[in-house]
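Now for one record.
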Amino acid sequence: MNHTSAQVKALPRLSRKEGLAKSLMKNGALYFMILPGLLYFLIFKYLPMFGLVIAFQDYKPYQGIFGSDWVGFAHFERLFSEPMFLNILTNTLVLFVLNLVIFFPVPIVLALMLNEVRQQVFKRIIQTMVYIPHFMSWVIIVSISFVMLSMDRGLINELLVAAGFEKVNFLMNPDWFRPMYILQIIWREAGWGTIIYLAAMASIDPQLYEASRIDGAGRFRQIWHITLPSIRSVIIVLLLLKIGDVLEVGFEHIFLLLNAMNREVGEVFDTYVYLAGLQQGQFSYSAAVGFFKSFVGLALVIGANWLSKKFGEEGIY
């Protein structure tokens, strides 16, 4: 009897193995296509996580990870007790809120506008124009902005003078740092962000629009009652992923905009890690700062996903 029951228990395990083997043979091409992506995340995302252990050590490069002394949460205590911690946290959160409130809706609105264009040639020309900035590096984007906003023959200041106004020092004035930051993000990423939304809109049943037109609904009512509800799940998923980047506001972009005059409102965790880790050689301390950023992002994603499920929406898992 025991022998029979053992065989019965072994049957599901064999069937699962056979099912996996059949799936690999049947969908081998698909698995091969996702292999580069899996390797990328494994090599560049998951394996480096082992290095986070130095956040709990007094890491010395010549001693290595296994030879460095353990200090526990000392680096985290130092981070939270730093006089500049609240300033850095405030700057990071303000930039994130601006990104979320101002930039996040822009690709949605732009996608809705592009979706209403009926002339395909004109639509493709506009899409190409708004996609191009995404393929330019932040160095080019910031350099173009510097040329346009410069006090010395900058296009914007020349227009202000021609209109009878005084020149404005956009680059050195701390009050203009955050507007420049968010406008540059919109310029570079708004067009690229429309791709997912346009793909979601393409899957909407055209019969819904036809029925609404018969009922007398105009373009705006169709957008409000058909298009937006149809892409709501996509918007929520992208919003959840965006919340996970709450302390990730972009090192390269911020670093290129920083100078001695606007550092007080522009210093964020990304640039602080560069300053402490690479310029000052405090590898363990900078790893602790990075660990703190990742932990906050993970906690917010889990919490936001739980809330979305609580309200009956789709989450990311």
About this structure: The longest helix spans residues 283-310. The chain has 17 helices and two strands. The chain has one domain: 85-310.
